[in-house]
Design a protein that fits this description.
It is built from ten helices and eight strands. It has about 300 residues and is of the alpha/beta class. An eight-stranded mixed sheet has the order 1-2-4-3-5-6-7-8, with helices on both faces. GO terms for molecular function: hydrolase activity.
Length: about 300
């Protein structure tokens, strides 16, 4: 064989043997969600699970879920964030990520997210957070402004309102384990003022009920000491805040406060919808997020 043909033939074989890294990762079906999770170990030894969807070369959106939820929380919204690389984490203690004894404050969670981005080689991303995830996202944006391009805070507050905190303290420490995913507390915990797909909610309740006690109590104890308004001035990313006016955890007073904390943020209210409005009306919320991130 002539020498000049050898490199060309070798390149052909290599191309055939190498997988295409441009292949779009599909959004897993609900029944396949757990099997679609990948894992990465952070620089401190914590192993974190996540689901990646969309084109791997797309602009990344990092998705951070709420208290006792996991990456599945984004499964209804993901189809409406088309064309973007979506990376949905399981925060520490949630889903299939490690659940260490300590620590569950939003500073520790934000540190995990920063290390997660480093582990995946993500220099900068748009970050979308819900509830606890929104507090974590805001903290990340304040501590590491170079990492956050644009910021979306869904059902957020700078602090845990007293009424919500009292309800949680009256119920969470008293939960009997194993927690019944269809018991009164869990049904209230996942209450929504308008219908949400029950197949999705059943899996959410089951996985949330299985979260270890260290997660339930670790987050609750930390939230009682949380007020990230003191670092909000360090947030440089353009920010959008979304809230449902039937939110049973973060009340209207907390929203008046957040408007003073982030006065330049774009603010949107969904009348008749609750804390999980992105489950109730994912198409509308997805369109609003997409429009904001595309500006």
């Amino acid at each position: 064989m002539h020498r000049q043909f050898i490199p060309a033939i070798a390149a052909m074989f290599m191309a055939a043997a190498t997988p295409s890294f441009a292949e779009i990762a599909p959004i897993p079906a609900q029944k396949n969600w757990v099997d679609a999770k990948r894992q990465v170990t952070l620089n401190d030894g914590l192993t974190v699970s996540y689901v990646e969807m969309g084109p791997p070369d797309g602009q990344p959106i990092l998705l951070l879920h709420g208290y006792t939820d996991n990456s599945r929380s984004w499964s209804l919204l993901a189809p409406h964030l088309d064309g973007r690389r979506l990376i949905a984490m399981d925060l520490r203690g949630h889903g299939d990520s490690d659940a260490p004894i300590c620590c569950y404050g939003i500073d520790s969670l934000a540190s995990d997210v920063n290390a997660f981005m480093e582990a995946l080689g993500i220099e900068q991303a748009d970050v979308v957070g819900h509830s606890l995830g929104s507090m974590t996202a805001a903290t990340l944006a304040a501590y590491h402004p170079e990492k956050v391009d644009e910021l979306v805070l869904i059902s957020t507050s700078a602090y845990l309102p007293k009424e919500a905190g009292d309800w949680l303290w009256d119920n969470v420490p008293a939960l009997q384990r194993p927690i019944d995913p269809d018991g009164e507390f869990m049904m209230n915990w996942y209450w929504n003022p308008t219908p949400v797909d029950e197949g999705f909610l059943k899996r959410e309740r089951t996985e949330s009920a299985a979260a270890p006690e260290v997660t339930w109590m670790g987050v609750l104890r930390s939230l009682g000491l949380t007020d990230w308004s003191r670092i909000a001035g360090r947030i440089k990313a353009p920010t959008m805040i979304l809230w449902g006016d039937q939110d049973s955890l973060f009340d209207a007073t907390s929203q008046d406060h957040i408007k003073t904390v982030l006065p330049d943020a774009k603010y949107g209210t969904y009348a008749g919808h609750g804390h999980n409005m992105f489950w109730e009306i994912p198409q509308q919320v997805g369109a609003d997020i997409t429009q904001f991130l595309g500006q």
